Description:
The protein contains 30 helices and 30 strands. By secondary structure, the chain is an alpha/beta fold. Strand 14 and strand 15 form a beta hairpin. It starts with a strand and ends with a helix. The model has no long low-confidence stretch (mean pLDDT 86).
Amino acid sequence: xxxxxxxxDDSASDRLLIEHLLRGYSVLTASDGLEAxxxxxxxxxxxxxxxxxxxxxxxxxxxxxALRSDExxxxxxxxxxxxxxxxxxxxxxxRLGAVDYIRKPIHMDSxxxxxxxxxxxxxxxxxxxxxxxEQTVTLDAIFQQAPIGIAINExxxxxxxxxxxxxxxxxxxxRSKEELxxxxxxxxxxxxxxxxxxxxxxxxxxxxxKSYSMEKxxxxxxxxxxxxYMVVALLSLSHYEKYTNICLIxxxxxxxxxxxxxxxxxxxxxxxxxxxPGMAYRCLYDRDWTMEFVSAGCLRLTxxxxxxxxxxRDVAFxxxxxxxxxxxxxxxxxxxxxxxxxxxxxxxIITANGERKWVLEMGEGVYNQQSEVxxxxxxxxxxxxxxxxEHDLRxxxxxxIWTGLYxxxxxxxxxxxxxxxxxxxxxxxxxxxLSVAHLLTVTYGFNYTLELxxxxxxxxxxLCTDKRLLFNTFENRFxxxxxxxxxxxxxIQFCEMLIELLGTLLFGERIGxxxxxxxxxxxNEQDIDQLFKNLLIASEKAxxxxxxxxxxxxFDGEMEAEIMREEEIKRELxxxxxxxxxxxxxxxxxxxxxxxxxxxxxxxxxxxLQSEKLGLVQPTEFxxxxxxxxxxIPVGRKIVHQAFSFLKRLKENGHGAVSVAVNVxxxxxxxxxxxxxxxxxxxxxxxxxxxxxxxxxxxxFASNYHDINKIIGELRQAGIHIAIDDxxxxxxxxxxxxxxxVNCLKIDKFFLDKLLCIDLKYAITCDVIxxxxxxxxxxxxxxxxxxxxxxxxxxxxxxxVQGFLISKxxxxxxxxxxxxxx
Length: 822
């Protein structure tokens, strides 16, 4: 390289950047024009100046004028730095003698290419002058050795006549010496560049300027374009007086292609960075994260202009990072760089005005040949909006939307966390069940109930402490989570406090509430879902209290045993429903005696459940569970099938007149496929509908009266008998008895037991029998266990009876044997 390079710019960051890009060259710097002139005076080896036109003291234009006016400095070549929007400055700078310009922002490839060309031209001009002065070689020898194209012109009308051309000039233009001497340089110059070239040449020949440089295009014989960097200067050598000027060219086609690609890349990058919700950076791997490059988005992201962060001029980026994240950010970079992995980390920064922002940093390390970390590069994006959305989503997922209290999911997570920590001495959950509040919604509307629940939640929330937290776990249900309480008495005191508070709030609403309590221990803490189920059961038990609208109930071992028993019954019913066989389900048959003939005229099919764990389960226990779980539907089909199978056996054994009664629930009756399934069973087993009786409890008619009465009416018309079971204990059907599509009334055991303890002249059982007969119904009395009951029924015209006095429920074989003996 020939001489030093002087960088003149008032921006310390730009000077540092150029020094970084021109590593390997001898670079001097100055911050203003006056300092630049002093540097030029002090260093005679300066051959190239990179000059920013905009400076506070002696601007670039003044420097150019000073250099042009002093003979000592006329040979110094000057490249001016301008911004993209300073076209007028570029033109004025070139007019004042600058040989080239570079636009900011400065890019490594463009700067190094242009500086290299200018230094090579300076070197070559010096070499020519030195060789000619020494007269050690001829001009022709210099032509042949030169690494750049050289042409010498002689005077002509347009200055285009060439008289000497070296081989590199031929190679660059793609034309032979003879062709070039004949055509001249004007005819092979691209039309778009010719006017500027001729105008510069005219100034040169008039003495207005002593040299000029430009980038121009030549047209090759095949029509392709070649880009060259050209310097034209007056030739005033004593040995070659007939020549007017010398032209030096260097092929820069690849550089132009690279520049165009770079410009497009920079344009795309500029567009990308301008729309980036953050900033791009390059920094040193130190505790301050010393920035070597920061994009313009820095201002919008941090509130600091980019130059403030460059090389920690005003503030280090580490100071921008929120204090609580600084160490974790450093540790994450250490971990990532050790494995050369991509970096990704979220943290908070504090902007210039004190605002906190969430950012996402993504980057990677830059390594030298020794695999040492040279720098870090990446982007830092503003994710505050995303974090805000995440916060809202998290809030909504953890809180009840109406009351603002933490929800069940939050309580479950807290229970798991405390279970794993094991730090709390005593733990319990206290549930408040306000499910009856839905009655207020029916009367007053949703908004009324909602405002009441909000009011209650606010009052309950006032009872919270750091050891007593409130959650809204479901609609109209609250749970207090209590930790480190003293003993059970403290829980009872708290429940009494809740009862007093709820009583005050709900005094005018005429609704109550149940409070359930569960103490958490090692046995029950694992299954959190079961904890909530048990808490609900305890609160519902409390709501069943008859002496108060508000009560509390502790979930205890007895209650747990009841739940476990119910769960076991559900499992048994599930197996029955899923099994092709009968499982533990079987039927027994209680004989029905016709009092007129004194013969067995029928049987009532009674369902039984045999469990491996629980033994024999009574229908009064498993039938309600089956109805609650809807398992009564598949179980009921199997009961019907077994009963009809027995009815078929009766016919096969010569008892074709004997009937079988089957109990049917409202859930079964109201299904669309009930009748079709019933007839499928009748047809499959070839039984007579006249021998079938369906028993329905009178409480069934309390709801869906018309639908059920229609269904049983259709079955009765088909020949099937319909009986009202447990008559007189449920829904009062006396007023509508005539409308019911039934054949028979079964008097409940309650009325028969009264015959044993009251004066028979006051008994109304005879009146029920008389009323039923007047309506044309058959009367069956069930639960007959004593002779005087049977005698009373005979005397008052009852048609049929059943009970232990006649027979206990029998298995199929026993029933057949009884009929055989009869």
